[in-house]
Amino acid sequence: MSRRAVVIGAGLAGMLAAAALSAAGADEVIVLDRDELPEGPEHRKGLPQGRHAHLLMAGGLDAMEDLLPAARLRKRLLAAGAHEIPLSSGMLALTPDGWLRRWRREGPSMLTCTRALLDWVVREAVLEQTTVQVRRAAVVGLTGSADRVRGVRVAAPGGDTDLDADLVVDASGRGTRVVSWLDGLGLSGVRERAVDSGLVNASRIYRVPEGAERFPLTVVQPDPFVSRPARSAMVMPVEGGRWLVSCGGSRGGEPPADPEGFLRYALDLPDPIVGRLISGAEPLTDVHLSRSTSNVRRYLEKLPRWPEGFVVLGDALATFNPAYGHGMSVAAFGARVLDRELARSGGLGAPGLARRVLRGAARAADPAWAMAVGQDVLYPDVRGGRPTVADRVVTAYTRRMMKAATGSYAAASVIWDVTSLRTPPTRMFRPGAVLAAVAGSPLPPSVEPPLTAGERAVLRALDRTGA
């Protein structure tokens, strides 16, 4: 008998899930998406954060390469123009406690490119390496019962039609309707939590000025420890000799959409370096705003009953404030859970498979959720929660570690390991990490960005502000 899997959503989570299903021996894997997918690395409507900065952490890339070992994704992305940024030396980062020093030592790295390029490279790799089919269709519901999902209901001009499947994966992202779909099967009572700092992202693309091609990724981080809205900015190299520049501000500190206001916003941050850089660069696009940034967790794994044949992954399960750069990696972790459970269980129809995948994907999302929510609840006027006593204790310890990291290689390496998602947050509490936090920085705080002489010359040449 033919075994069919249907995936809802052709974004990163959906295509990686499709790769896992194909590798597990599904005879037919169909990916459904309501968008007309572009034939190249172009923005599409179904990615609300697609025009803003995305960081692919080392842990997420590891998971993607596990799922598509023959595709050599890292090599493909770099060949397409992505940049590999060593966390230890390739980044200028102003934290609330000062500039992080740059260390000429080995450490994890991240890839930077536009979200459109990343999605396109992954989608092309999946379609090359598998027999996955992608179709344009809008899913309006699930078929089956509270015990087993049998397929999906698809909108059609002459009336909705049903598409049967042995396994359905909801990877439809932030806009998922999974709660109402489950309710239609008689499964209600899903607990949800949303933590919304009101973050607004404003992004614009610039041409990299001549001579600035090797200027490091530059970020001014928000400060959650003052009673003011979060405000931040980043200059990130992307493909095509361009900089993607994103400013972000939480409720009450939102960046504007007009070009003059955008530049002024960057210059008014605790350090004007981002504004100084872009003041002498040629803009290639308008300023694009996005307000779809809240953290949302659907605790589907807590339901007392869960239907066979239905899995939820990616943003449909847990959605993160994109400022932390973890959403894509968590989507890859969930797809890897699906891949491993399929291999362990022996196929799509194994009893209990869907529930095991759901629980594993939820566990994979929990560390990123804790990091994002633990910071967002500190901002004024946040909606969805206030910091608990436990939150404040963890925050105080984390801040001590960050202060130490401004001048301690041992503390900085702990931060890199955790933020790269290659190690769990418990890495922060190992004896060596605790010792580094307690010892603090052996060097005084740096009040100036740690630039080389050549980088200082580039910044001076670009600066049109007189700052």
TrEMBL record:
Lineage top rank: taxon: Bacteria
Keywords tagged on the record: Monooxygenase, Oxidoreductase, Signal
Listed GO MF terms: monooxygenase activity
TM helices/strands, residue ranges: none
Segment forming the signal sequence: 1-26
Family annotation (PANTHER family): THIAMINE THIAZOLE SYNTHASE (PTHR43422:SF3)
Record's protein name: FAD-dependent monooxygenase
